[in-house]
Design brief:
seven-stranded antiparallel β-sheet, alpha+beta, single chain, 27% strand, 176 residues, 7 strands
Length: 176
C-alpha cells in the first residue's frame, strides 16, 4: 500500500454493530482504495488480525472479497454507509459511514479517534463477547476466570482504546 495519498481523503466512522457501549473508530483513508485494501485497513484500525473472510454490503449488493471496486464507487457523499462483515461465520458486523471528503492532507491511512478495545477474535460475535466479559468478572469460579484471563491476556481492558497502536498497525500495512 502506498503511503502518500493519491486521491481525496475519506473520513470514515466505523462502528461495531450491537456493541453496547459502542466500539468505534474514525479513520482517514484514500477514496481510491480497493475493497481488499479497505478490508485490511478496517481490520487494522479496529484491531482484528485481517486473516478472516469478509463481505461488504452496500448499494443493495453483496460485495465479496476479490470484487474490483473502490471505496469511492461505493460511498459518494457524507452520510453514505456500507456494512462490513468481518469473519461472517462469527458475525462481526460493522457499519462504515462516510463523514466527510476532503483534500489529501497527510500520509494515509490514519486513525483519528476511537473508543474501547476490539473484542478478542475468538469470540462468536458481540453476544459471545458480552458473555466473555461477564465471565471474566465472575468470582464464583476463580480457575475458569484465570483460564479466561490467560486466553485474552492479563492486560486486556475492554474500556481502553490505544490510538497509537491502531496507527502502528495501519503504518505496518503501508510498509508491506
Amino acid at each position: 500500500m502506498a503511503a502518500m495519498p493519491t486521491s481525496e481523503t475519506y473520513h470514515l466512522h466505523i462502528e461495531l454493530l450491537d456493541s453496547d457501549p459502542p466500539i468505534w473508530r474514525q479513520v482517514c483513508v484514500q477514496g481510491d482504495r480497493s475493497l481488499e485494501d479497505l478490508h485490511q485497513i478496517l481490520a487494522a484500525a479496529v484491531g482484528w488480525s485481517g486473516q478472516a473472510d469478509y463481505v461488504f454490503k452496500g448499494q443493495g449488493q453483496v460485495l465479496a472479497s476479490g470484487e474490483d471496486r473502490s471505496l469511492a464507487t461505493l460511498l459518494a457523499q457524507p452520510g453514505d454507509a456500507l456494512i462490513y462483515i468481518y469473519a461472517p461465520a462469527l458475525g462481526w458486523l460493522h457499519k462504515i459511514t462516510l463523514e466527510a471528503i476532503a483534500p489529501a492532507q497527510h500520509p494515509l491511512p490514519h486513525c483519528t479517534a476511537g473508543e474501547r478495545q476490539c473484542p478478542p477474535e475468538f469470540c462468536n460475535g458481540v453476544w459471545d463477547y458480552v458473555d466473555l466479559l461477564d465471565r471474566l468478572s465472575d468470582s464464583d469460579d476463580p480457575e475458569e476466570v484465570d483460564a479466561l484471563w490467560q486466553k485474552v491476556g492479563y492486560d486486556f481492558d475492554p474500556e481502553h482504546f490505544d490510538r497509537a497502536s491502531a496507527n502502528q498497525r495501519l503504518q505496518s500495512l503501508v510498509q508491506d
